[in-house]
Amino acid sequence: MILSSRGRSTVRQSYTILTMLAICFGWATCASGQSEWPRFLGRNFDGTATTSPNNSDSPSVSATEFDWTVPPTYVWSAQVGPGYGLGSVANGHYYHFDATDGRAAPKSERLTARRLDSGKLIWSVQQPLKYRDLFGYEEGPRSTPTIDDQQIFTLGVSGQLTCRNIDNGVLTWTINTSEKFGVVQNFFGVGSSPLVIGDSVIVMIGGSPDEDQKVAPMQLDRVSSNGSALVAFDRDNGQELWRCGSDLASYSSPRTISVGGKDFLLAFAREGLMMIDPTDGSEAWRYDHRASMLESVNAMMPVVQGDEVFISECYQVGSVLLKAGANSREVVWVDPPGDRRRQAMRSHWATPVLVDEYLYGCSGRNAPDSDLRCIDWHTGEVKWTDSRRIRSSLTRVGNHLIVLEERGRAEVIRATPAKMDVVATWPLDKPEGNRPALEFPCWAAPIVVDDRMIVRGDDQVVCLKLPR
């Protein structure tokens, strides 16, 4: 039976209604609802945990705080292969995307499903992977699976876009986007995660014309665009719906924004930010924002509050806050280019977290010149900085932030602009009992769903229970 687009939407809506009824009447304990982490940076793209909202006015903020003075307890761990990302959580399962090491058999990209409460493996599927990193980094996925209803979408390091059934991992369709759109390999491969809007799945691709395919590796300044910065596919069969954007890909992931009561999508591509109409791919406006250095990259996901958008990079130009209109944008404040000492935030691969009009995040390109800091959303004024020179990523849980340093140590800090207020320190970089140590690099922000926290080191994913 082949359903029309309207029929597929009706089935999808029916599934959503049944899922909501299951939650309301207790038929399911962890189905499609607030207690999920269905895509990169969570349901609302904001790195904020959804932990039993209860009477909270905002579904993004936890009403149930934890006893941060008590260390989390070990629940389970799993060995993982090459790659840098964490997975997604839905239906009481944790879905992880990595690669096999290629020693015992040909290298493959792998998607696994585990029970969130026990780590028990439910299913595991693989598909061939052909990729060589130009700088010698791990040759596995950098992105996060995206879950919507009964489908799970992955975009691999070589550009393989895949749709599977979430219950069993059975393949629905797959496309090698790098081959189809003529992508000249970026420095570190593909690092963007898919975005699902309605009946489409939208990915950053950044392909180039035939004449650019012979350009030498790492010469991206000589590579042009063929108008496929973003491409939308039918989520049920993989057919192309539209393409747009005269830009190459970055490592940032697209997200949504509502402006004037209408939904748009934001894409922080290699050369700058675009706001796109997701119905047809038409470009509402763009804002150029990239360092002039060949090696520079844009990687953080845009941070949104209302109709304001924050983007940042760590190489030269720093940050800017924009006010988005339906057809244009205005600069609220912008960092002085090239003046690192006066720049508010220089985001590299980690996306800052917004709490009560203040941004908290890691600023700097490498460990010697990096710090954790808090800035005023409205002005860019730096409120405080941490004197330790180490890179980190953050996840918000209520009024606290879990800060995971790239070498595995974790801290809980109170989200306040007054000072860096450390509430607890967890030495996850050292083993304890049955819990393995997190080993460098720890570049993925923690996932928190209810009282479970998932963190990743180089070759281990560890699940911990937060004490209430």
Describe the structure concisely for a colleague:
By secondary structure, this protein is mainly beta. The chain has helices at 5-24, 177-181, and strands at 73-79, 88-90, 93-99, 108-115, 121-128, 146-148, 151-155, 160-165, 171-176, 195-197, 200-204, 230-234, 240-244, 255-259, 262-268, 272-276, 283-288, 303-305, 308-312, 319-324, 329-334, 353-355, 358-363, 371-376, 382-385, 392-397, 400-405, 410-414, 421-426, 447-449, 452-456, 460-465.
How would you describe what is shown here?
- It contains two helices and 32 strands.
- It has 468 residues and is mainly beta.
- The chain has a four-stranded antiparallel β-sheet with strand order 1-32-31-30, with no helix packed on it.
- A hairpin with a 5-residue loop joins strand 12 and strand 13.
